[in-house]
Amino acid sequence: MLKTLGIHHITAMVNDAQRNIDFYAGVLGLRLIKKTINFDRPEVYHLYFGNKTGQPGTVITFFPWPKQLKGRIGIGQVGLISFAIPLGSSSFWKQRLAKFKIQYEITNRFCEESITFTDPDGIPLELVERNIVSKNGWDSVIKKEYAISGFSGATLISAKPHKTADVLEKLLGLKISSDEAGFLRLNSEGELGNFIDIKLTPSVRGLMGAGTVHHLAWRAKDEAEVLKWRELLIEKGYHPTEIRDRNYFTAVYFQEEGGILFEVASDSPGFTIDEPLDTLGENLMLPSWLEDKRNELEQLLPKVEARILKEDIQ
């Protein structure tokens, strides 16, 4: 049976590119690992953040577009993105969020304490302590002993929670581990991005737009395994897309019965395919078929950079 190790990446939509970089790189200390464009809409950036190498399970990506309308988080969406922080680092993060005047709450779910807050576009986030062996390794504004390791997981808001659970368990290979307080928890076998909670209580209908997650991608080993996943999806009655070349991974997309858009993405070839590890995210990288439009796109896209913040960005 095919099994995913967990989350490969999560992609969301926001309004302002520089504000997005300031928050995820400047405040949260993630590395801007790729500055490219939305392959389907080249006039829009596609920004990738993660650990030093862009390891699957650490990567969050964004489509920043000032003209898009505000979305609404609800049914058919990812309702909460969870980041894993090292054991004993919660105090550091509470102080850091307070420094940048970011309001947070302490919440408890499955007997775990987490720090919950939103990014500047309203995307709900949480930090939860996890004993992760693989560390970030990125020399950012945050010391390695406090740095975000990658994803802990995500909370899904489904129109059919138990149907979504069936997809995760019977198709993707996760296992149900707990059921309490209106949530069902499943686990994958990976170290990062391996906790998935499904909200069991009713919610409003989600509306796609700025401040919402576009899709959640699951890990596959390589392109050959993505092909196997596509064949399995067809066999199980889903209608996956054709396999798409995203330069840094190959992918196939499908919508599960609860309305959430899922992707299966390959771990390889990775983010160093078109630029060295030491300079990831510093230059605008374009796919080969758009290279002849570089000058036009560089004039169209706003100038952005990862920078050290000295004051509140809110």
UniProtKB/TrEMBL annotation:
It comes from Metabacillus malikii. Residues 6-130, 150-267 form the VOC domain. CDD domains: PcpA_C_like (cd08347). This is Glyoxalase family protein. Pfam families: Glyoxalase (PF00903).
